[in-house]
Amino acid sequence: MNEPGLYSLIMSSRKPEARAFKRWITHDVIPQIRKTGSYSTQVPQTFSEALRLAADLQEEIEKAKPKIESFDRFISGKNYQKMGDVAKILGYGRNNFFKLLREMKILMRDNTPYQEFINRGYFVVKEKPIQMGSHVINKPQTYVTAKGIHYIDKLLKERSIIV
């Protein structure tokens, strides 16, 4: 396969990696080439530029530390959210959210997640007792973990479904 054929294949792919590449090409590379005539990742040319860049990066890392620590605590938490609440957080109606996750092959037809996503720690399914007349039946209730909320949010952004 030649280089143009490879780009054509990538641009037509629906895989998340290809979408990320396509987004990078169309949002970063092509606009910079159009504006400046070339694309470069700004590599320091002198030792003093490299030191300045390292100092700037260290400053950004220090500023981000509290956010990173909070994020890590949030992701490792055992707090589960109902699907409807997660839908609201991400700006969706409950039914549209279920439909979207079914289309993305995360949820099955009965709105329970595929085992793969439970194993990854994105969902927890618990039996919820429901009174039906004179007897009680247990119905599966799907909850989203903090890790799952992060995964879904990232997935929706990668696919340009949310900004």
UniProtKB/TrEMBL annotation:
InterPro entries for this protein:
Ant_C (IPR005039), BRO_N_domain (IPR003497)
Q: Which Pfam families match?
A: ANT, Bro-N
Query: Which residue numbers delimit the Bro-N domain?
Result: 1-37
Q: Output the Gene Ontology terms for molecular function.
A: DNA binding
Name of protein: Bro-N domain-containing protein
